[in-house]
Amino acid sequence: MNKLRLYFAISSVIFLFVLAISPLKDFFREWKGYQYEYNTMIKELPQRIKPAEIGIKQIWIKKLAKVDRCTTCHLGLKEEALVDAKEPFRMHPRIYHDFEEFGCTICHEGQGSATTFEESIGKVKYWDKPIFPREYMEASCGKCHKEQVVNQAPILSLGRKLIKEYNCGGCHKLEGFQRQWVPSLNGIGSKVNRSWMVSWLKNPKGYFSKTKMPNFQLSDDEANTIADFLMTFTSFRDNATFEPLPSQLMQTSESRKVAMEELGSTRLREARCISCHSINGKGGYVATDLGKVSSKVNLEWLYNYIKNPKLFQPNVEMPRYRFNNNDLAAVIAYMKSEYVDFDLAESVPHIPDPQYYEKGLALIKKYNCRGCHELETIKRSEELGPELTYIGSKKLYEIDFGQSEVDQSLSTYLFTKLKSPRIFSSKMKMPNYEFSDEQAQAISVALLGNTSEQIPEELKIKPKPAGTYSPQGKFGKLVNDLACFGCHTMFDRGRLIATDLTLEASMAKRDWIEHYFNVPYSLRPILTERMPNLFLSEDEIKTLVDYMQTVFVADTLAHDITINETTIAKGKLLYNERYGCQSCHQINGKGGFVGPPLDKVASRLQPGWIFHWLKNPQAYKPESIEPNNNFTDQEAEVITAYLMSLH
After folding, report:
1. Would you call 344 helix, strand, or coil by DSSP?
2. Do 197 and 291 have their domain in common?
3. Burial classification of residue 156, based on how many CB atoms lie within 10 Å of its CB (0-12 exposed, 13-18 middle, 19 or more buried)
4. Are residues 220 and 110 in the same domain?
5. Per-residue pLDDT for 509 more than 90?
6. What is the pLDDT of residue 51?
7. Are the C-beta atoms of 449 and 388 separated by less than 8 Å?
8. What does the alpha-carbon distance between residue 58 and residue 60 come to, in Å, rounded to a whole number?
9. Phi, psi of 68 (to 5 degrees)
10. End of a domain among 305, 338, 371?
């Protein structure tokens, strides 16, 4: 009986001790320490801030099925006085979304229900969504924003741009990204010389540093076998054939050859091929480098391709220049003499492997060359790489990090694989794109945003449907022949390298458009890409301008402007003094280089266009950096009057 009493007494003491410890332990909770520290800190501020109530704070976002307790410790998220405070008390940077409406973990990831630092950031066992490092934060924007360009997420936008440009859809299934066009390999054996092809296959960037073609890290045997295989493809699509080289290229007289080359140099400069093509690293990067092209391709192919690009590459975005026969021969003569690769090894006798065709075909399939290139009857290997539609939700246990010692996280895995595609296994087939750190980070951000997380449809911002505008008649044929959609957009179709032409006739005057087609020039001299001189005939120019005047016009942009000495003087004062427009635009050589110069703007633009542009530039060009000054109608009218005086 005494033992029983002893046991009861001991258990009673232990029970009382536990009862005493429990509230003490609760007092020392990590989150309570932050709340006491916060209340102490705000007392020392000159601004009056409401103290935090001691206790767990919780945000329930029903539409996202999320519960976040982050505000238990992050107490100053809305307090401007705490913009420079230490974490976790610092004010949240201003963004479009309100954290009380969307919560925290929808963007930051982490474990929303946790109340300790380690658990909240999610770097604990069995939690696959640790908090995003700052450099990957924009990945979460991709959950809702499906458009190509997300205005407040430049890294995400760059990543999506790179995924499209590097044709990742050629090997991977990736929602929102279609396979892009690249040059067909049909007839490649009639186009290039074999020595160049082997060199190209081994190191594409060694020939053209800006190429999108990756390095497949081929062995010498693999490169030679693929080259032997591809050189057998000598026929072009639709049985297109070469016209013979003109007799002018067979000149033996040295003086005539020099004269031809000088003429070719002049025509090449006038055509402004350098707007799209670089020449030994200088110029545009829309198309390949021309600096060594005569050592790469056969002259017959070069002559015929420039004469009619779409005959050999039907979907190419290169325009057909209107060179006459003599001028075209002169251009080829100049390229033959100047655009030479003196470092290219001379062709040496080569004996192909007896089984080169079978081995070459196997390599073409192994590396999925048909994922990007068209090649006669060779089938494309569908989705050779893993599907990336929901790569952002991939579990860590599903990732093979191999023998690497990188941080065990999805973001690090993606970044590392993009930088060194075969680091995790030598058996991997992904080629090396030689991405910079900035590019690899941007692509990783874009991929991390592709999750299987259920987002309500009303929160998703989807891209505008691609335009289906297809001009008909003579104008439509010219648009196709001149590859206008390669640089311009019309009714939401095309590439916005140059201006949108949808409202061109409401923007520019007819006389200026006609003159511009005759002698194109750059409105912004500091830009590399410029309108080439296509040497159009007067009839072709008339066809283009007549169509524009009928279709590329909006009656709503007409506006009557009173132009007299009084309105001009008022507009000049506003332009120079009140709004400082000269900081970006030049007139008579004075001003900034950000926007186009406004000399002779009255000869170029319609007054109605200027008025409406001044009222709201982004309504006509959303990406424009011209500020919306919220002009009144009267201010916009007098500034327009001033600009219309600049003949």
Report:
1. coil
2. yes
3. buried
4. no
5. yes
6. 92
7. no
8. 6
9. -120, 135
10. 338
Written as one letter, the residue type at 407 is D
Return the DSSP state at 166. T
Question: Within a 10 A sphere around the Cβ of 507, how many other Cβ atoms?
Answer: 25
Tokens 């030479």: give the residue.
340
Q: How far apart (Å, rounded) are the C-alpha atoms in residues 482 and 321?
A: 8
3-state secondary structure 333-358: HHHHHHCCCCCCCCCCCCCCCCCHHH
How far apart are alpha carbons 641 and 631 in whole angstroms? 14
Q: Distance (Å, rounded) from C-alpha 414 to C-alpha 397? A: 15
220-231 pLDDT, tens digit per residue, is 999 999 999 999
- Are 112 and 105 in contact by the 8 Å Cβ rule? The answer is yes
The answer to whether residue 507 is domain-embedded is yes
Let me know whether 193 and 285 are in one domain. yes
User: Do 224 and 292 touch, CB atoms closer than 8 A?
Assistant: no
Name every residue whose Cβ is closer than 8 Å to that of residue 143 and which is 6 or more positions away in sequence. Answer: 106, 449, 451, 453, 455
Same domain? For 195 and 333 the reply is yes
CATH of the domain at 279: 1.10.760
Contact 64, 103 (CB under 8 A): yes
* pLDDT over 70 (residue 383): no
Q: Give Cβ neighbours of residue 597 (< 8 Å, ≥ 6 apart).
A: 523, 585, 586, 587, 591
**Residues 254, 510 contacting (CB under 8 angstroms):** no
Distance of CA 484 to the CA centre of its chain: 20
Question: Domain containing 390: what range?
Answer: 154-173+384-452
Using the structure block, give the residue that is written with the tokens 């008390």. 89
Contacts of 73 (CB under 8 A, 6+ apart): 30, 31, 34, 35, 88, 115, 117, 120
Q: Are residues 214 and 321 in the same domain?
A: yes
**What does the pLDDT look like over 110-152, one tens digit per residue?**
999 999 999 999 888 888 889 999 999 999 999 999 998 898 8
Q: Given phi > 0 = left and psi -120 to 50 = alpha, else beta, which region is 547?
A: alpha
Residue 178 inside a domain? The answer is: no
pLDDT band at 466 (very low <50, low <70, confident <90, very high): confident
- CA 169, CA 388: separation in Å to the nearest integer? 9
Q: Is residue 257 part of a domain?
A: yes
Provide Rg for the chain, Cα atoms: 33
Close Cβ partners of 559 (under 8 Å, ≥ 6 residues apart): 607, 608, 611, 612, 637
Within 13 Å and on the Cβ side, how many CA atoms surround 601? 23
pLDDT, mean over the chain: 90
With respect to residue 431, please indicate whether it lies within any of the assigned structural domains.
yes
Question: Do 199 and 304 belong together in one domain?
Answer: yes
SS3 sequence of 465-499 = CCCCCCCCHHHHHHHHHCCHHHCCEECCEECCCCC
